[in-house]
Amino acid sequence: MTDIGKYLIVIGGVVLLAGIIFYFFGNNLKWIGHLPGDIRIERENFNFYFPLTTLILLNLLIFLISKIVQWLK
Question: For residues 16 and 22, which has the higher predicted lDDT (pLDDT)?
């Protein structure tokens, strides 16, 4: 049961860190979601946006972080 508490603390720390980054550096992060490969379709009464490249980069970043954490154990 203590493992769940540890995971919740880590998740809370990650969310806090993300909030601090977006709060202080939000103006410099406008490129997120506007990368080449992100799909954007804008019509008169319809907007569709799918950040494909951004999701791939975030997935790669999360994978690398998890591998580093696993390696450090």
Answer: 16
| Category of 33 on φ-ψ map: left (φ > 0), alpha (ψ -120 to 50) or beta | left
Q: How far apart are CA 52 and CA 37, in angstroms?
A: 6
Distance of alpha carbon 32 from alpha carbon 48, whole angstroms: 17
Could you tell me the two tokens for 27? 């103006």
| Alpha-carbon gap, residue 49 to 62, rounded angstroms | 22
Report the length, in residues, of the chain: 73
Give the pLDDT mean for 67-73: 83
SS3 45: coil
SS3 of the chain: helix, strand, coil, percent, to 5: 65, 10, 20
Query: Per residue in 35-62, pLDDT tens?
Result: 888 888 889 999 998 889 989 998 998 8
